[in-house]
């Protein structure tokens, strides 16, 4: 969720409710400011009031990379949104043209990008497996079209499409 904190709109990244021993309960939260992009840890007492800010989530398609920035298009309205590499983060390893992602907006500014749980990528480089090297679930490093390296079984060859878990970055199955 997003909240108005000290006159600045911030996105709540993490939150924990704590009750230490004989003290009053409080909420420990990690907030990221939309304006500055900086994260901070904040403690809220149980009596403090917070003002939630409405968030809008939209499914968007990755269109192309423009220099360092990433351009996404809304498939219904064809409006484009350009996101900086800091916001895209590790998701860049799984982005291919026309892949769907969920972008969250607060006050018409993109604040987060969420990938689907798995993506299908094409293998661009897969070294041959060594003959007789199949005693136990042996894996080899294969390079995907986005440049990420993934451990995959020996039978995977260059040009094949495989499914990868975006949370762990691990091979799931052939596509």
Quickly list its features.
175 residues; mainly beta; SH3 type barrels; OB fold (Dihydrolipoamide Acetyltransferase, E2P); five-stranded antiparallel β-sheet; 1 helix; 15 strands; 54% strand
**CATH architecture type of the largest domain:** Beta Barrel
How would you sum up the major sheet?
5 strands, antiparallel
The H/E string reads EEEEEEEEHEEEEEEE
The coarse overall form would be: flat
Say how many strands there are: 15
Give the helix/strand class.
mainly beta
Walk across the major sheet and give the strand order: 4-3-2-1-5
Q: What is the rounded Rg?
A: 21 Å
Whole-number average pLDDT? 82
The proportion of strand residues reads over 45%
Share of residues in helices: under 10%
What count of domains describes the coordinates? 3
CATH superfamily of the largest domain: Nucleic acid-binding proteins
> Could you name the CATH topology of the largest domain?
OB fold (Dihydrolipoamide Acetyltransferase, E2P)
**How far do the termini sit from each other?**
35 Å
Poorly predicted segments: none
Our count of helices gives 1
The CATH class of the largest domain, by name, is Mainly Beta
């Amino acid at each position: 969720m997003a909240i108005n904190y000290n006159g600045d709109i911030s996105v709540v990244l993490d939150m924990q409710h704590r009750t230490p021993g004989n003290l009053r309960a409080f909420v420990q939260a990690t907030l990221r400011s939309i304006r500055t992009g900086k994260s901070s840890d904040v403690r809220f007492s149980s009596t403090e009031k917070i003002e939630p800010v409405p968030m809008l989530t939209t499914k968007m398609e990755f269109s192309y990379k423009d220099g360092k920035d990433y351009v996404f298009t809304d498939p219904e309205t064809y409006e484009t949104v350009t996101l900086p590499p800091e916001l895209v983060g590790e998701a860049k390893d799984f982005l291919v043209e026309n892949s769907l992602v969920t972008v969250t907006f607060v006050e018409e500014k993109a604040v987060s990008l969420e990938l689907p749980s798995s993506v299908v990528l094409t293998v661009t480089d897969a070294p041959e497996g060594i003959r007789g090297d199949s005693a136990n679930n042996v894996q080899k490093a294969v390079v995907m079209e986005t440049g990420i390296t993934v451990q995959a079984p020996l039978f995977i060859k260059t040009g094949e499409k495989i499914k990868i878990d975006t949370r762990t970055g691990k091979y799931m199955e052939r596509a």
